[in-house]
Write a structure and sequence with these properties.
alpha+beta, Alpha-Beta Plaits, OB fold (Dihydrolipoamide Acetyltransferase, E2P), 2 domains, 5-stranded antiparallel sheet, about 30% strand
Length: about 260
């Protein structure tokens, strides 16, 4: 653990998300409350060049999903070293940058309907391989503070997959799910149905929602981007934007776009 210029912020170094998740879970059970940013790899300098850690990755996947997995790994600059048929499955062996591992497990489980099995270990340090694509899906972000209602969730269920269900306390800027699209979507998930003294036939149907996706601490750390945090307390694990207000996030995106266009 290293100090930073901010008195309430520390830099913690570990071996992958699981190692960090164990430390954070231990602190959580001891009563600490903290916010965790997206992990970053430690880059070294050799003869004036940047070198980054590279992993040896083995993935077992059913044959029907192998094509989608190979395509996803290609976007993360993974280099295939072997492909072994095993009955109706395929074993894919790769070397790829360690930073490309972040979020990969969740993406593979989504692509393969939970059937992919992945393991990885440190392989070598190699020259920096350039920028990697960001998370392929956006976040569903709460636009209001209150308690989530089934009525509101049902109205926006087609926008993505939720991490929360009805009755959960929500605040503005909290990430409540993963979007179907590649961009963030601000949603009102605390809206209540207006009550009247009239009752029409068919207007009081039961609310039917898909069960929310449960995020473990490790999966939460994998999911976040640079502008997001994992909020950890003894009672809950939540995801949030660094800037809770939507207008502040829009201003930040405009500033980034103007800087990148120069």
């Amino acid at each position: 653990m290293l100090d930073t210029p901010s008195p309430d912020t520390f830099e913690v170094r570990g071996r992958g998300e699981l190692h960090l998740a164990i430390l954070i879970e231990t602190m959580r059970r001891e009563g600490y409350e903290l916010a965790v940013s997206k992990p970053q790899v430690i880059v070294s300098e050799r003869n004036g060049a940047r070198y980054e850690p590279v992993e040896y990755v083995v993935i077992d996947v059913p044959e029907s999903f192998a094509g989608a997995v190979i395509e996803a790994l290609g976007r993360r600059k993974a280099a295939m070293s072997n492909l072994i048929p095993i009955a109706e499955s395929r074993r894919l062996e790769y070397t790829m940058p360690t930073r490309a591992i972040f979020g990969l497990r969740g993406e593979l489980l989504t692509l393969t309907r939970g059937t992919a099995v992945m393991s990885h270990t440190y392989y070598d340090h190699q020259p920096w391989q350039g920028e990697l694509p960001a998370r392929s899906v956006g976040a569903l972000v709460a636009s209001d503070t209150g308690r989530a209602t089934g009525y509101a969730l049902m109205g926006v269920e087609q926008r993505g997959r939720f991490f929360v269900g009805p009755g959960v306390d929500i605040y503005e800027g909290m990430i409540v799910g993963r979007a179907n699209d590649s961009f963030d979507v601000a949603l009102n998930v605390v809206r209540e149905k207006k009550l009247t003294n009239m009752r029409a036939a068919g207007s009081d149907e039961n609310v039917k929602l898909a069960p929310p996706e449960e995020l473990s601490l490790e999966r939460a750390i994998e999911f976040i981007e640079d502008d997001e945090l994992v909020e950890v307390t003894p009672k809950s694990i939540r995801l949030r934007k660094r800037a809770l207000n939507e207008s502040e996030r829009l201003k930040a995106r405009r500033r980034e776009a103007s800087v990148s266009s120069r």
